[in-house]
Amino acid sequence: MTETDEAYDEPLFFRVIQYAENADRDVVDMVSGNPDWEPPAALRDGLRDYAGADPPEFQYQASEGLGELREEIAARRNVDSSRLVATNGAGEANYLAMAAAMERGAGTEFLLTDPVYPYYPGKATMLGGSVTRVPVHEDGHVDVAGMRAAASEDTGAIVLNTPNNPTGAVYDIDAVAALADVAAEVDALLVVDEVYDHFDFTGRFESALTLDRDHVVVTSSFSKSMGITGFRVGYAVFPDDLVDAARTRHMLVNVTGSRPAQTAVAHALRETPPSYYESIRDTIRERIDALTAALDAIGADYTTPEGAFYVLARFADFPGTMANAERLIDEAGVAGMPGETFGDAYDDWIRFSLCTDRVDEAAARLTAYFEGS
């Protein structure tokens, strides 16, 4: 287990992306999680319809979010809409959930996995909390026993992300339930970020909301599933006793969210068939196969994601440092995210995002680079 200090820095994603943008050669971007797939047709229809609305429809909506959107989400997640706050993406949803943990006064420590998406520890320290990271199992799945051993009266929240970025693991619902028990034992919240729920390739994913626990907060967004990261439409589902404070914090920071974006998403939820999401999963499966076949050919180790759309790769004598990520950009023309960004457990690895239709080209470049090394 490792602990961070109280400082927080600008996420390194920006540094890698900017380095790639400033390169003197063409670079395949496999850093960002910006989907390249077409959003649902119904989303565009919803925007067109909204554009013709009367002026009153262009004004503030309820701070907690557009009523029709919250009702659509609530019906799908089998919760009461009064527990929902529509947020500025999953980023704000996670911020509100982690702030709620601090406001409870039950503890200021956040238990996170290692590796972990770096925005979680960044938010924790920004909120004045401390961070303890618990390494995952070798297969990328959460170490329930390790989390239980690390939990204490100082723990304010256990934060999970499933399907997971960067490991691609889809956590078993029994493991999530066990961690809900751990959280309850130390009077902490369990915060579960399910933003990649539509990218489950196992058929085993089950939302933490099915546990029906009074100390669990679930967050998500439509950025990935609908390919609309720029719309910033997310949500959090809070226990009844925490939702009012979360709404207040949301209102003081944002006033409210984007009404046209939420209107379009609500329309898309009603009108988009399941086949839309399956077609995206098929595309990601093809990209996984293309990249991992190349990694096999050059003898690299790699993860085969059960969910999300990232592959971690480990190359001989090429650890996942920022310096090596920059070398890949300069010498191979492929931009990946250094494993050290996510913690210590996978610091020898490099994460590649599959949000590009240039995966075949990237695979060829990596093969040429490492076979020629």
TrEMBL record:
Give residue ranges for domain Aminotransferase class I/classII large.
Answer: 26-363
List this protein's GO terms for biological process: amino acid metabolic process
Q: Which CDD domains match?
A: AAT_like
Mind telling me which InterPro entries this protein's record contains?
Aminotransferase_I/II_large, AspAT/PAT-like, NHTrfase_class1_PyrdxlP-BS, PyrdxlP-dep_Trfase, PyrdxlP-dep_Trfase_major
Q: Which domain of life is it from?
A: Archaea
Q: Which cofactor does it need?
A: pyridoxal 5'-phosphate
Looking at the Swiss-Prot or TrEMBL record, what is one Pfam family this protein matches? Aminotran_1_2
According to its UniProt record, the EC number is 2.6.1.-
- PROSITE patterns (alphabetical): AA_TRANSFER_CLASS_1
Q: Which UniProt keywords apply?
A: Aminotransferase, Pyridoxal phosphate, Transferase
Single annotated GO MF: pyridoxal phosphate binding
Q: Which family does it belong to?
A: Belongs to the class-I pyridoxal-phosphate-dependent aminotransferase family.
**Quaternary data:** Homodimer.
List the PANTHER family.
AMINOTRANSFERASE, ASPARTATE AMINOTRANSFERASE
**Name of the protein this chain belongs to:** Aminotransferase
What organism does the UniProt record list as the source?
Halobellus clavatus
